């Protein structure tokens, strides 16, 4: 969607242009208005603007000076200057500054102004399409490679790939780890920031922290790091590769040396981050290397250690096996070892629901709910019960099927663990609920879309006297403006602004024919800011003026007019 900003110190010009483009229903644009240069600067600060239609002479800051600000803030933004001054020097200076799509006089016909905007919009859309295929630089390719590497490593949290498959992935993605050797883990987090109070600066500092620690740990052996969560990091380490003839005792010694060095190096890195970057960092590290099958539980266990070691404290160095304030964490409990896997599986179940894959859903549902359930503690079963309940209820509510299912089964048991006699009855109950969801979901996406369209129509009809922007309407149905615009056009065959104009015109006809209200008040009642704008729109729609329509269709008693 193209964002258009209209800037002029003459309100009548701004409002006239606004109405002109609002009626241009074939243009997919969001329109902003500024009656002073300073209002325009505020809008440019808060929103990405693609096209500016601006006067060239305004109090406080000229259009030429505003142009320089626009180019600095949004380099790809195009500008159309609209002025009452037919002076070549202004045009020449504006064009030299760059970004100028056109230079028009205020007395130009609406059609010429509209054609200029259409041309600029087409140019912007073409450039956007070109930019979307511009992933050519080495930096972007490296970022893409890093993202894929991160995905591969974090997939290990949820699964246990065969060593040969893991080795092949490491080789393809240039990950310098060996799939046939254990791996040593450490995680870290940024505790506090000394000075930056914006996300951009903090992201840069977090990146710097990761690089500093990488530099220190690389002295101990092979080191790979990835960022995760909110300014948290994971380091995976192995000793430098030795020959196959290396005795076992030498390999064991290499691991001991690596772990001993890591502990000292993390302390040094912690000090460097504090002194150089002014950032407090905490670490949790393993007590021994883990094989790749234990990678996921070990990672989650370290996260728990670091989390429990918080309590407002900073610059912690936590080793596995430490007691944290007298608290011992049982690393063998299913909650700590497999809760990440459970969330992954529940997410997959939700995906199967969304896509209507009942067979795949049931194939995964059975092991999730039944596997070794008898060995789970009571708290583990409660976690599983309420996790599954939340996913199923959330989907049923989003798709509008909750009221349908409530007439077919007792959905109160979805949130009452004690209402079930055995765990087997829980498994059967959730399975029945899921089957009903699949049986009734066929029409649910269409029903949801229809309700969205109906809600928009109702809102428009009840608020014709107000400013019905795409942003406001999108907020009403909890969608983005761009998505709502595409959805409405796809489902109805017309643009949303076309429908709004149609409703306003229908209401205007009704009021002109059936009331004695003054035409300027009717204009306000159907959402037009000035009678001339209303008259122009009405004539464009019906080929006659509002007064001519009233004269031809007025049904009131002449004495009551």
UniProtKB/TrEMBL annotation:
Domain Response regulatory: residue ranges: 3-121
A Pfam entry, by short name: HTH_18
Modified residues (4-aspartylphosphate): 55
Domain (HTH araC/xylS-type) ranges: 454-552
InterPro entries linked to this entry: CheY-like_superfamily, Homeodomain-like_sf, HTH_AraC, HTH_AraC-typ_CS, Sig_transdc_resp-reg_receiver, Tscrpt_reg_AraC-type_HTH
Keywords on record: DNA-binding, Phosphoprotein, Transcription, Transcription regulation
Protein name stated in the entry: Helix-turn-helix domain-containing protein
């Amino acid at each position: 969607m193209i964002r258009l900003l209209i800037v002029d110190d003459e309100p009548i010009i701004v409002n006239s242009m606004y109405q002109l483009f609002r009626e241009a229903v074939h243009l997919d644009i969001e329109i902003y208005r500024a009656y002073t240069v300073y209002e325009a600067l505020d809008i440019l600060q808060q929103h990405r603007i693609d096209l500016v239609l601006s006067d060239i002479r305004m109090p406080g800051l000229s259009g030429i000076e505003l142009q320089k600000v626009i180019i600095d803030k949004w380099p790809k933004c195009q500008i159309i200057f609209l002025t009452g001054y037919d002076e070549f020097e202004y045009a020449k200076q504006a064009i030299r500054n760059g970004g100028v799509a056109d230079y028009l006089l205020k007395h130009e016909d609406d059609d010429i102004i509209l054609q200029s905007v259409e041309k600029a919009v087409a140019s912007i859309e073409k450039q956007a399409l070109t930019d979307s295929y511009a992933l050519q630089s080495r930096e972007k390719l490296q970022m893409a490679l890093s993202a894929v590497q991160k995905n591969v490593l974090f997939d290990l949290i949820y699964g246990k790939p065969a060593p040969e498959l893991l080795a092949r992935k490491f080789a393809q993605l240039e990950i310098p780890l060996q799939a046939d050797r254990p791996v040593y883990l450490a995680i870290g987090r940024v505790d506090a920031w000394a000075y930056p109070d914006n996300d951009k600066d903090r992201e840069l500092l977090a990146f710097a922290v990761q690089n500093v620690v990488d530099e220190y740990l690389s002295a101990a052996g092979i080191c790979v790091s990835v960022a995760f969560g909110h300014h948290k990091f994971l380091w995976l380490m192995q000793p430098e590769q030795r020959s196959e003839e290396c005795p076992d005792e030498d390999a064991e010694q290499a691991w001991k040396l690596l772990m001993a060095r890591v502990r000292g190096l993390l302390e040094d890195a912690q000090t460097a981050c504090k002194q150089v970057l002014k950032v407090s960092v905490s670490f949790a590290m393993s007590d021994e290397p883990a094989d790749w099958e234990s990678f996921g539980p070990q990672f989650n266990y370290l996260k728990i250690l670091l989390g429990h070691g918080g309590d407002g404290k900073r610059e912690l160095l936590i080793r596995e096996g430490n007691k944290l304030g007298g608290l011992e964490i049982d690393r063998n409990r299913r909650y700590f070892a497999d809760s990440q896997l459970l969330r992954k599986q529940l997410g997959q179940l939700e995906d199967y629901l969304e896509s209507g894959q009942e067979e795949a859903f049931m194939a995964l549902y059975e092991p999730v709910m039944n596997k070794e359930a008898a060995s789970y503690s009571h708290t583990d079963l409660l976690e599983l019960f309420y996790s599954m309940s939340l996913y199923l209820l959330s989907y049923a509510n989003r798709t509008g099927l909750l009221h349908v299912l409530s007439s077919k089964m007792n959905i109160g048991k979805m949130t009452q663990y004690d209402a079930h006699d055995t765990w087997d009855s829980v498994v059967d109950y959730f399975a029945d609920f899921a089957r009903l969801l699949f049986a009734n979901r066929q029409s649910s996406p269409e029903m949801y879309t229809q309700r969205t369209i109906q809600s928009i129509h109702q809102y428009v009809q009840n608020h014709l006297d107000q400013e019905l922007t795409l942003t406001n309407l999108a907020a009403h149905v909890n969608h983005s403006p761009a998505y709502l615009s595409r959805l409405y056009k796809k489902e109805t065959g017309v643009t949303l602004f076309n429908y709004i104009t149609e409703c306003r015109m229908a209401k205007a006809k009704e009021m002109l024919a059936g009331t004695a209200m003054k035409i300027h008040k009717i204009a306000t009642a159907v959402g037009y800011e000035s009678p001339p704008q209303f008259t122009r729109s009405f004539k464009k729609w019906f080929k006659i003026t509002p007064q001519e329509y009233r004269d031809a269709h007025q049904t009131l008693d002449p004495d009551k007019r």
